[in-house]
Amino acid sequence: MSAPTANQRKECWGARDKLWKCLDDNRDNTSCEKFQKEFEVSCPAQWVKYFNKRRDFLKYKERMEKEGFEPAEGPKQSQS
């Protein structure tokens, strides 16, 4: 598999950006199916996988920055 050309990369990134904007604007994934298909056709499969994980991470990071992190309480230590 050869590396994507500059034009192919631009097309992939553009499709990714359209999909991400749609997902941000619509909480309903079904309204973004057209953009999802375009993204999957425009980008190599490994890139699709990477960008999906990246979006999940960025959304998680954004939520942690807004809401903060509350660690789970561990087991109680008995004081004998």
Describe the structure.
The longest helix is centred in the C-terminal third of the chain and has 23 residues, at 45-67. The protein is mostly helical. The chain starts with 5 loop residues before the first helix and ends in a 13-residue tail after the last helix. It has helices at 6-25, 33-42, 45-67. The model has no long low-confidence stretch (mean pLDDT 90). Helix 1 (6-25) packs antiparallel against helix 2 (33-42). Helix content is 66%, strand content 0%. It has one domain (6-65).
Keywords, separated by commas or semicolons:
80 residues; mainly alpha; 3 helices; COA6; mitochondrion
The major β-sheet equals: none
Helix content: 55-70%
Continuous helix count: 3
If you compute it from the alpha carbons, what radius of gyration comes out, rounded to the nearest whole angstrom?
19 Å
What percent strand?
under 5%
Mean pLDDT equals 90
Low-confidence stretches: none
Number of domains: 1
Order of helices and strands: HHH
**Which of globular, elongated, flat, extended, rod-shaped describes the shape?**
elongated
Helix/strand/pairing class, anyone?
Answer: mainly alpha
Number of strands: 0
Terminal Cα separation, in Å? 64 Å
GO biological process, one term: respiratory chain complex IV assembly
Keywords: Disulfide bond, Mitochondrion
GO cellular component, one term: mitochondrion
Main location: mitochondrion
How are the elements arranged and paired?
Blueprint: H1 6-25, H2 33-42, H3 45-67
Organism: Esox lucius (Northern pike)
Keywords: Disulfide bond, Mitochondrion
Subcellular location: Mitochondrion
